[in-house]
Amino acid sequence: MAQGLRHYPTTPDRPPLRAVTPPVLYWVHLGLAILGIVAFFAIYLALIALFGWLTWDSVFQLPPVGGWVGLTIYAGRIAGCAMLTLFFLKGLFKYHRASPNDSIQITEQEQPEFFAFLRRLAREMGVRLPDSVSLFHEVNAEAAYDRSLLNLIVPVRRRIGIGLGLIEVLTISEFKYVLAHELAHLTQGAWCSRCTFKACTR
Q1: Greatest extent of the chain over all pairs of C-alpha atoms, in Å
Q2: pTM of the model
Q3: What is the pLDDT of residue 201?
């Protein structure tokens, strides 16, 4: 990794237009995915509102019968609706930190030539650098995000992970492609990922 810019593979100036133009079916699938996400959130929020209203309504609704039986039905109805409301509300506040086990985060101060390599590749692709880079022991590479509800309004923290076992078996050109592939994932562009393969392996 320390050989970064001294062995930076050449990138073609202009990849074939056919290779970087998404077909109509791609846009159809993208539109369906967006509609699915919107529908999911609409249904999810509707369920929260429904169970919240049922909880509120149950508090002021008298039990159908008296005595212990009526009290049990009354308390059970409130508890059941309240638990369902809290269950769905809990999902809105979950936070997932994208970090593999036993990973080690590296910085530009520690690996300046690698980050120069990564910065040049990101500039050629026209994408933003990840917020962090980490190393782990697997024969793999990954792009990941820290996920929470706040990411609907706050930019998500993006990171890439590189397996040391993978580095051992790749040429510098293959390593460039792997990095390009992971950077393309961070743009959330599946088609961009395919385009980087076309561009980097020519």
Answers
A1: 85
A2: 0.64
A3: 45
